[in-house]
Amino acid sequence: MRRPLRLTWVLSRGNLSGGTKSNRLIAEAMVRRGHDVTLVHSTAGKQWPSIYRVRSLYRRVASEIRNATVNRVHHLEQSTARLLPVRSRPIRAEHVPDADFVFATWWETREWIDSWPASKGRKAYFIRHHELHGGPLDRVRATYRMPGAKFVIARWLQRLMAEEYGDPASVLIPNGVDRSQFSAPPRDRQRVPTVGFMYGQGWKGGETAVEALRFVQQRFKDLRVVAMTPSHQIKHLRSLVNCVIHYRPAQNLIPTLYRQADCWLLPSTTEGFGMPGLEAAACRCPIVSTRCGGPEDYVIDGVTGHLVPVGDPKAMCDALCRILSLDNAAWRQMSEASYDRSRQFDWDHSAQLLEEALFSRLYERSALDP
């Protein structure tokens, strides 16, 4: 009989990112399998810019003022796994319990655990994106070449680890859906055609999405847009007619927003996985996504939605219009196909895959010990 494993996840900080939520959910699925799991995260604030960097300092002050006016909840407020907040950055070995495995969850945390003693666990890296946007390129890339087990959440990341970083042994552990939160009964199209999306700048593709939706509004004059956003920078959103903007919506509101949409749009230039798309699919939304990585694992072109080229607002518009133009019976067929596809992504199944991979590595290493 296999013994319970002692597992530690090391997170940079508590926040509302999809990566933080996904790490918590796979950890909780491991708890359900009987393992002893700790989620460690830093509560130390970011370092302030130098007083000589006036623009950076101004942006930081403005950010702190804005954040003071909102409820700063995050995905590590509560969990069935043991939560261990640490008032230090970086987190050091003495802050965490001994374990069989310790998981880095971000390039920075992989640097942190690199020098930790063997008692803190065999080193593993949960890779949720190609995080070149997150830090100095040379340091980020170096973490993908560090030894230890690698776990990835999407097939494109598995290929990337093999082709660019020389590691063909990374293990695919897909994200799942929290079905206690995201679900919907069979439903019809909305009376008013409605498209939803998560608005973000940069690689999130928000500007391209807005341009595409302007084109859609030329064909569907009554189009309603539902936008979620974590950002105050929404001037492009305001150019859309009949757009309802939800700034950092409460977690219990998000499923309702998915259920209000005839189609959910993912306009990113790159996505590790694209959790909002899978959550929307679980709420019976067809999905239009760019070919940006992760969503290609759960969007079947022409069946559950459509895949379009990155950065192409015309193609995005055409795909959205194809879905909005469906009669109710055809729309329901695509809605049900999207829902059925979402059911193939399950946290408990992913935890089983992770457990098997961990025991395999544990026994493999034990056989090598004298």
From TrEMBL:
<dbReference type="GO" id="GO:0102710">
    <property type="term" value="F:D-inositol-3-phosphate glycosyltransferase activity"/>
</dbReference>
<keyword id="KW-0808">Transferase</keyword>
<keyword id="KW-0328">Glycosyltransferase</keyword>
<dbReference type="Pfam" id="PF13692">
    <property type="entry name" value="Glyco_trans_1_4"/>
</dbReference>
<protein>
    <submittedName>
        <fullName>D-inositol 3-phosphate glycosyltransferase</fullName>
        <ecNumber>2.4.1.250</ecNumber>
    </submittedName>
</protein>
